[in-house]
Amino acid sequence: MAVFTRVSPEQLQTLLESYFDAPEVTEFQGIAAGIENTNYFVSVKSGGEETHWVLTIFEMVTAEELPVFIGLMQGLAQQGFPAPAPHPMLDGSSLAYIEGKPCVLVPRIAGGHLDTPTLDQCAIAGDLLGAMHLASQSAPGRRDVVRTVAWMQSHRDDLASHIKQDELALLSGEIEHFQQQADIWAQCPNGWIHGDLFVDNVMFDGDKVSGVIDFYHACHDCWLFDLAVACNDWCCDAEGRYDQEKLRAFVAAYDKKRPLTELEKKQWSDALRVGALRFWISRLISQYGKGYQHDAERGNTLKNPDEMKAKLLSAHKIAAL
């Protein structure tokens, strides 16, 4: 959640007047963490009450795409899942604009993300992800997968002149392996996935989850893939070393909430591989591309692609469940 778009106090005041009656800004601070959208902490006094928010300005997601994400978050919140649903404006709509870019105002969540999750916290996160998959079945809308095989192949070709030959060979081999398994993946349970349930997207207040953020990679895909993406972050370090105890705890808690099928259990290693593969490619794109992420005013917006390559290689050694 870096700062790419600067907002003046006057622009903020005009925006907030579409949400509140006679708002008085008491806090306005850019958030340096994150890599894709611009985010600010905003506190407002209105009607004698002070409330606390996060203003998110979308740098990549278009206004046409956003209603499906807003519908998902609102649907999850209605099911009791801790997703911060966007706050409606006075006219009832949830999507605003600033500097010509779409934006939303969501409640600020108490607490913060973990640095190094414990065994118990991994189990809590596994249960949470299972609960999200079940709750999302009644959420409205649909969004197809963006990071398809075609997406991977196209970016592999773009990256060919930037990465080493052994990396290109690994990338090509993994894409081909995933493509060959298309029929198997089509048989795995699917629905809404978060798509990015890293440690920094789950807020804890003490020992309890206070909220889940950053649903803007959500789409319809295999639930097992979502589980693998999460485990690759919660249960594996930056050098690609899996913590087997954490991995078992996370998966066991998920399986208790949303039982895995036998096919999913057989696909576990491949799920970890493709989860790391997609994020390896996206980080390589960020590193070698010339996009807006290089122009952030605050925050380190680029994440090390080598971390995901290491996890991809380690995933080959993980057995079926």
TrEMBL record:
Cited Gene3D superfamilies: 3.90.1200.10, Phosphorylase Kinase, domain 1
Any Pfam family: APH
Protein family (similarity comment): Belongs to the pseudomonas-type ThrB family.
Swiss-Prot/TrEMBL catalytic activity: L-homoserine + ATP = O-phospho-L-homoserine + ADP + H(+)
Recorded GO MF terms: ATP binding; homoserine kinase activity
This protein's name: Homoserine kinase
First-level EC class: transferase
GO biological process terms on file: threonine biosynthetic process
Source species taxonomy: Bacteria, Pseudomonadati, Pseudomonadota, Gammaproteobacteria, Oceanospirillales
Keywords: Amino-acid biosynthesis, ATP-binding, Kinase, Nucleotide-binding, Threonine biosynthesis, Transferase
Pathway membership, UniProt: Amino-acid biosynthesis; L-threonine biosynthesis; L-threonine from L-aspartate: step 4/5
